[in-house]
Amino acid sequence: MTRILLCGFGPFADVEVNPTQLLMERFRKNPPTVLGLELHTMVLDTEYEGCEWQVQDAIRSFNPHGVISFGVNKNSDRIQLERIAVNMDDSSVPDNSGTLRRGRRINDGGDAGYWSSLPLEKIHDRLTGSGIGVEFSNHAGTYICNHVFYYVHHLIRQYEMDCISGFIHLPPLTDHIRESWGAKRGMDMDTMFAGARLCVEVTVESLGDRD
Questions:
Q1: pTM above 0.90?
Q2: What pLDDT, in 10s, does the model give residues 50-108?
Q3: What CA–CA distances, in Å, run from 179 to 20, 138, 167, 189?
């Protein structure tokens, strides 16, 4: 069995409807029909410390071969494949527990950054071929999304796991865009789910190619 852990987030700040939470619900009801795939989904708290405990427990208990975390970027109309996580929390927006972090390292003794180990080029090609808007991104921000991206890689190294991991930003839902956001069209839920399924399927295929 190929075990894949999928993570999304609940609402935060002015994002009252987080599409990644709805995405996890879709995956639970309609998992990809990939032979030998065991899928585990979870919705993380949008909190620096809270999300660490949640993802740590999930990785310990599920022992995944791959971890794909999804977050929302309210300033994009495309799926963004994040290339790198940086060892830094720095945001003017507090997390859902009220914690504000400015210029603070995620791990004092950790690497400056971690590259995504997901098959990003193949995912990009598959999404493009399916007509779904996608682009590469070289900065996952310095808020909770980047925090989880970095922390999962840190855990994988700490536990010496044979596991790939990465982060993918999704646009906001079309029906929930605010005028102050950079996104103008967003993405409907059906297209978003189709794109996320492709991300999972390509990741599973890539893991099979390594055997």
A1: yes
A2: 999 999 999 999 999 999 999 999 999 999 999 999 999 999 999 999 999 999 999 99
A3: 21, 25, 26, 20
**Helix, strand, coil shares of the chain as percentages rounded to 5?**
35, 25, 40
The Cβ of residue 105 has, within 10 Å, a number of other Cβ atoms equal to: 15
The Cα 152–Cα 159 span in angstroms is 11
CA–CA distance, 148 with 107 (Å, rounded to integer): 12
Place of tokens 């310990």: 60
Domains and CATH numbers, the chain: 2-210 (3.40.630.20)
Residue 16: count other Cβ atoms within 10 Å of its Cβ: 9
Residue 40 to residue 3: CA distance in whole angstroms: 8
Q: What pLDDT digit, counting tens, does each position of 8-35 carry?
A: 999 999 999 999 999 999 999 999 888 7
Judge whether 168 and 155 are in contact, CB under 8 Å: no
Q: Do you know the residue count of the chain? A: 211
